[in-house]
Design goal:
Layout: E1 28-32, E2 35-39, E3 54-57, E4 60-63, E5 65-70, E6 76-82, E7 89-94, E8 98-100, E9 103-106, E10 111-119, E11 123-132, E12 138-147, H1 153-157, E13 166-173, E14 176-182, E15 188-195, E16 201-203, E17 206-213, E18 218-228, H2 238-255, E19 258-261, H3 264-280, E20 281-284, E21 287-290, H4 302-312, H5 317-329, E22 349-350, H6 354-358, E23 365-366, H7 372-387, H8 390-411, E24 454-455, H9 456-475, H10 479-500, E25 501-502, E26 507-508, E27 511-512, H11 525-532, H12 537-547, H13 580-592, H14 596-612, H15 644-647, H16 649-658, E28 660-663, E29 668-672, E30 682-690, E31 693-701, E32 706-714, E33 718-722
Parallel strand pairs: 29-33
Antiparallel strand pairs: 1-2, 2-3, 3-4, 5-12, 6-7, 7-10, 8-9, 10-11, 11-18, 12-17, 13-14, 14-15, 15-18, 16-17, 19-30, 20-21, 22-23, 24-27, 25-26, 28-29, 30-31, 31-32
Helix pairs in contact: 4-5, 4-7, 4-16, 5-7, 5-8, 7-8, 7-9, 8-9, 9-10, 9-11, 11-12, 11-13, 13-14, 13-16, 14-16
C-alpha cells in the first residue's frame, strides 16, 4: 500500500496521488477566507482514511488530528450535515455501550452529544453540548486529541520534499495548548487551542474532561483553535463569532439574485451550489474572488475564476468585477521562463505555502495557462454587457490591450494566426489548456501531441476575446481599433473552420500539433467552439449531434473524450470523465445556435446526477461510465468537493436554456427562445439587479415556449421575449 510520503515515479508531476479514495468516506467541508477544513462525518480529523482531512491555512495543514472519544471509545453517529448556507457543521452523536468491570455501565443512546463547528477569521470554533437522557447519573471521561503536521498542500497531494522544517514541542499554559512548526521559509506557524474551561487532565496533545451528568441534565464544552503565521488573530466567543459569520453570510447572499422553482430537488441543487460559491469566494484587496476548490485548489486560479464569474455573472456581477480587478493587478509584466510568464499574460495560479515560497513548486505566482488571457478579455466584455460599468472597464482597458498584445506577440508562437502553447518552465505544466494532464492531448493513434500545440477551444476564446474587445473599443470611441479587431476575429473564424473541422469525425479536432497535424479525436473541447460562436452554422449542428451521440454522451453528460478513442478511460481525469462546468459551456453553445433540446438533455443529465450525490453537490468531475438504470454516477476518487465552476454550472445551464442576456444601454433583459425541461414547470428569479433597478420575474413552462411575467419592478427595466 502506498502512502502520501512514498516516492513514486509518475509522468505528470502535479498529478494528485490517490493514496486513498475520497469516495469511500463522505467528508464535511468548511471554508472561510484563507482557511478551510475537511472533516469526517463525526467532525473528527484522522491520519487514516481520507488522507486530506485536516484544517488548512494559507497552504499548510495547521491541524492534522482532532479526535473525540468518550471513555476511550468513538461516539456513535446519529446524523451529520452542513447547513444549507455552508456556515456551520452540525453533528449529532451518542455514546456506545460503555463497559466497567465487564458490565455495561452506560447503555447506548443515554447521552446525546451535539457538536457544532465553523471557521471564522483564521480560527476554528467548536462547541460540544452533552445531555443525559438516562434515569441515573452518568460519569464520563471526554477526551480531545490534537496534532498538527504543517504539511504543505503539495505534500498532502503526494509530492515528496527533500527536507522539512522542524516541529516545536507542544506547550500547555493553563487552558491553552500551543503547537508549532518552524519552516524552511523562515515562517513560524502556530496552532493555539484555547478551552472555555480548564481540562481536568492535559498531556502533550490531549485534553481530558471528567464529567458528572445528573439525569435529565447537561453541560457544555467549547474551544477555539487559532491558526497563526504572524500576529495572533483576535478571538471571539463561540456565540459572538457565530453571529458575525452569519451576518456576513446573509449579507453576501442578499447581493446575488435568487432562483426558486417548482421542483424542490432542483431547488436543493441550486441552493447548495449558491452556498458553495459563496463559501469559496474570498474577499481580496481587489474584491471578491472564487477560490477554485477544496481541498487541492483553495487558492486563486485565473481560468477557474474567470469561468466561475461568467457562470454567475447574470446573478452576481460584482464577482466578475472582483475577478477582473484581481487578475489585472497580477498580470505579468516581464518575461520569466521560471514562471512561464510573459508581458500581458494572465495568471494561472497563486500559492502561499512553504513549498511555493521556497520554489520547490513553481506555483507561487505561475502563468502556465494558454487560455486565461483571452478568457480575461471575454469576461471584461461580458461584464460590460451585463452592467454597463464603463468607468471600471476604462480603468482596466490598458490591461485588456496588454492581454491582446500577448495573444498576438507571444500566443501566436509561429505566426500562423492560431494561439499555441509550449512550456518554458521545466517544472511547469506540460499541457496548458483546461485539460492540463500530461496525456490529455493526443493523436488518433494514441501518440501524445508535441508542441507548440494549438487547442480547438483556445481559438474560440481568442475569437470571442477579439469581438468583445472590439465592442469595448467602440464604446470608448476607438473606431479604427474596433474595426481592426472585428476583422481579425472574422479572419480567425474563417481559418479556424478550414483548419480544425474534420469531416471524418463530424466535429472539430482536439488540436493542431507543432507540425500542424490535426489531433483527430472526438472530445468535449469542440463544444467550446459553439460556446464562443467561432463554429460555422453547419459545423455547429453536426458537432452537437456528435457530442450528444452515445460514444460521447454517457447519460449524465458529455465525456471529455468519446468512448472508443485510443486513450479513452472513464476513470481518468481528462480522458473520458464528465465535468459539470465543461457540460455547461457546451449547453450554452448549443443554445446559442438554437439547439435548445440538446441543451435541455445536458441540463437534465446533470440534474439527475445532483439528486444522487451527497448534499446535492456536484463534484469537480465524475467517471464517464455509461449511465445504468437505478444507479448514480460513479465517483472520481480525488475530485474536489466543492469546486467553484462545478457549483456555477447550474446557473450557466439555466441561463442557456432561458436564452437570457442583458443590454446595459436601455437597460433591457432579453429571453431568446426560452425553454424549460418537462420537470420544471415554474421558475422565479428574485432581486435581479439591472442598471440602477431591480426586478422579480416568474417564468412558466408551456409546451413550446416559456411565459414570463413581471412580479415586481423598481426602476426603468425592459423585458423582451423572442419566441
Amino acid at each position: 500500500m502506498t502512502t502520501a510520503g512514498d516516492v513514486i515515479q509518475i509522468e505528470d508531476k502535479w498529478y494528485v496521488l490517490a493514496t486513498s479514495s475520497r469516495a469511500d468516506d463522505r467528508t464535511r467541508v468548511l471554508k472561510h477566507g484563507e482557511t478551510f477544513g475537511v472533516f469526517d462525518r463525526l467532525g473528527d480529523i484522522h491520519h487514516v482514511g481520507v488522507a486530506e482531512q485536516g484544517v488548512y491555512h494559507e497552504g499548510a495543514r495547521f491541524l492534522s488530528e482532532l479526535g473525540l472519544t468518550v471513555n476511550g471509545e468513538r461516539p456513535l453517529l446519529l446524523n451529520s450535515t452542513v447547513r444549507t448556507d455552508n456556515s456551520l457543521l452540525q453533528v449529532n452523536l451518542t455514546n456506545p455501550d460503555l463497559m466497567q468491570q465487564g458490565r455495561r455501565h452506560v447503555p447506548t443512546g443515554t447521552v446525546h452529544i451535539a457538536r457544532s463547528k465553523f471557521l471564522w477569521q483564521a480560527a476554528h470554533y467548536e462547541e460540544l453540548r452533552l445531555f443525559n437522557y438516562g434515569r441515573h447519573e452518568v460519569e464520563l471521561e471526554l477526551a480531545l486529541a490534537f496534532d498538527a503536521d504543517y504539511a504543505d498542500i503539495f505534500e498532502v497531494r503526494g509530492v515528496t520534499r527533500p527536507a522539512r522544517g522542524h516541529l516545536l514541542p507542544p506547550r500547555w499554559q493553563g487552558q491553552l495548548l500551543e503547537l508549532g512548526y518552524r519552516g524552511l521559509d523562515g515562517v513560524t506557524r502556530r496552532t493555539r487551542i484555547r478551552f472555555g474551561r480548564r481540562p481536568d487532565v492535559h498531556e502533550a496533545g490531549r485534553a481530558v474532561f471528567r464529567l458528572r451528568l445528573p439525569p435529565q441534565e447537561g453541560t457544555r464544552i467549547d474551544f477555539t483553535i487559532a491558526f497563526e503565521t504572524g500576529e495572533a488573530p483576535l478571538l471571539e466567543t463561540f456565540a459572538g463569532a457565530r453571529g458575525e459569520l452569519q451576518q456576513v453570510v446573509e449579507a453576501r447572499s442578499r447581493q446575488a439574485a435568487e432562483v426558486h422553482t417548482s421542483n424542490e430537488q432542483f431547488n436543493d441543487w441550486v441552493n447548495r451550489s449558491a452556498a458553495d460559491l459563496h463559501m469559496l469566494i474570498t474577499e481580496t484587496e481587489h474584491g471578491p474572488y472564487p477560490y477554485a476548490g477544496v481541498p487541492w485548489y483553495s487558492t486563486p486560479f485565473g481560468r477557474d475564476g474567470i469561468i466561475t464569474a461568467l457562470q454567475y455573472l447574470w446573478l452576481y456581477p460584482e464577482l466578475a468585477r472582483g475577478v477582473l480587478a484581481f487578475l489585472a493587478a497580477h498580470q505579468a509584466d516581464e518575461e520569466d521562463p521560471r514562471r512561464d510568464a510573459e508581458p500581458g499574460k494572465i495568471l494561472h495560479e497563486l500559492r502561499h505555502g512553504e513549498m511555493a515560497a521556497l520554489g520547490e513548486v513553481p506555483f507561487q505566482r505561475y502563468y502556465g495557462t494558454v487560455d486565461a488571457t483571452p478568457l480575461f478579455v471575454m469576461l471584461a466584455g461580458a461584464y460590460y454587457e451585463r452592467t454597463g460599468d464603463r468607468p471600471f472597464l476604462e480603468a482596466i482597458w490598458p490591461n485588456i490591450e496588454r492581454a491582446l498584445e500577448w495573444i498576438d506577440r507571444y500566443g501566436d508562437r509561429d505566426g500562423d494566426g492560431f494561439v499555441e502553447y509550449e512550456r518554458r518552465c521545466e517544472q511547469g505544466l506540460a499541457n496548458q489548456g483546461w485539460k492540463d494532464s500530461h496525456d490529455s492531448v493526443f493523436h488518433a493513434d494514441g501518440r501524445l501531441a508535441e508542441g507548440p500545440i494549438a487547442l480547438c477551444e483556445v481559438q474560440g476564446y481568442v475569437y470571442a476575446a477579439r469581438r468583445a474587445a472590439a465592442e469595448l473599443a467602440g464604446v470608448f470611441g476607438e473606431v479604427e481599433r474596433a474595426r481592426s479587431l472585428h476583422a481579425q476575429a472574422d479572419d480567425l473564424r474563417r481559418r479556424f473552420n478550414e483548419a480544425f473541422w474534420c469531416e471524418e469525425l463530424s466535429t472539430f479536432v482536439l488540436a493542431l500539433d507543432g507540425d500542424k497535424r490535426p489531433c483527430k479525436v472526438v472530445t468535449s473541447n469542440a463544444g467550446h467552439a459553439l460556446f464562443t460562436g467561432i463554429a460555422a452554422e453547419e459545423y455547429a449542428r453536426r458537432t452537437g449531434e456528435t457530442l450528444l451521440a452515445e460514444p460521447a454522451f454517457n447519460g449524465w453528460g458529455v465525456r471529455t473524450v468519446a468512448k472508443g478513442a485510443p486513450r479513452y478511460n472513464p476513470m481518468s481525469y481528462h480522458n473520458g470523465s464528465v465535468w459539470p462546468h465543461d457540460n455547461a459551456l457546451i449547453a450554452a453553445g448549443l443554445a446559442r445556435y438554437g439547439y435548445a433540446d440538446q441543451a435541455l438533455r445536458i441540463l437534465t443529465g446533470l440534474f439527475d446526477a445532483s439528486i444522487m450525490v451527497d448534499l446535492h453537490r456536484l463534484p469537480e468531475l465524475f467517471c464517464g461510465f455509461t449511465r445504468q438504470p437505478g444507479q448514480g454516477p460513479t465517483r472520481y476518487p480525488v475530485a474536489c468537493e466543492p469546486q467553484a465552476w462545478a457549483a456555477g454550472a447550474v446557473f450557466h445551464l439555466l441561463q442557456a436554456c432561458l436564452g437570457l442576456r442583458f443590454s446595459p444601454r436601455k437597460p433591457q433583459i432579453t429571453f431568446s427562445y426560452p425553454r424549460l425541461p418537462a420537470w420544471l414547470e415554474r421558475v422565479e428569479i428574485r432581486n435581479l439587479r439591472v442598471g440602477g433597478g431591480t426586478i422579480d420575474l416568474a417564468l412558466r413552462r408551456h409546451p413550446l415556449d416559456v411565459g414570463i411575467n413581471v412580479l415586481r419592478k423598481d426602476g426603468d427595466i425592459d423585458v423582451a421575449v423572442i419566441v
